[in-house]
User: Fold this.
Amino acid sequence: MLVSELRELLKKYKEEDLRLLVSEMYKAMPKKLREDKDIDALLQDVHTYMRIGKVESRQDKQVNVDDLKQKIDLFIDYAYKQYYFAPNSFVHKKERPKWRFIVKAYIKDLQDVSIDSEEGSVATDLFQKLYEMLSYACSYYIFNTENPFRSVGIEQTVLLDMVITRKLGSGINNESVKSAIELVINSELDRETLHSFLIQVLVMNLKSPDSKVIAIEQCKLLKKELQKPKPAPSKKSWSSDFSDYKRIDKINNLVETVFRLHIELCEYDEAIKYFNGNNIERSAEVLLYVLLSLLLEYELKELWLREYDEAVKKGVKPREALQKTYEYILENDKLPEYFLH
Assistant:
């Protein structure tokens, strides 16, 4: 029975019945349980008992961040070295599957450290390291799982939100915003997450117009760094192709972030102009599809139709799903919930 159900049940009893009920429950309790829980003190003064219990609970939750840092740093070092995945002499075979419970416990302990405390920044840094480790584990085997966030019992977006909330909670400035953006664009993804989801978490945490403007500036600076020419490799390889793909992906994620921030500032034309001028897509039709997807998400019907018509005038042939969606909008004067197929 849930506590809420118990409370409802007790409402039907009269005072005499409640006395009888408490007496019978007291007698039914083993003596050791009564002593361990100090039930006598509870019965003598329930309010004092509850007040003392809350204080003790808070004291129990106090975390020694220095000790925790040593443990987490060692755990992360072992994880990246695959000691929780491959045979080794540092982590026993029986202990390797327990990594998920260890991470859960670390996250819980770090949540109990206030951002405003002296150790708050250290806890935030450890939080970020755990997130980055789980993100890395989405693409590289360091644990025996292909979905590390699910194994720990937390969604990637939820943990990212915890980290960004802490990072920006101690002050919004160029440095903290840049760090949050880098965390988003450098993230590896689990099977249930898109970079758009992570970008939305970031944008959601930038609550003031000033913070959004700072983020737009930082995104543009990071994009400029990624576009700097790099020495060409002596010979073309799969790794160089993959590196170039990752670089383009990061640039496009920065462009999407700027688009979303302009939209949040109600700067719709600026958002579209920046997106069309900076997103790297070899196909004009793919670029149109991505843009219209975003405009559909923000329910900007008139802009959706305008961008569709302008693309067609330029010779772009939209895919069938976009054509059907266009026809639906003209017939019904509203956007559908998703592209029609």
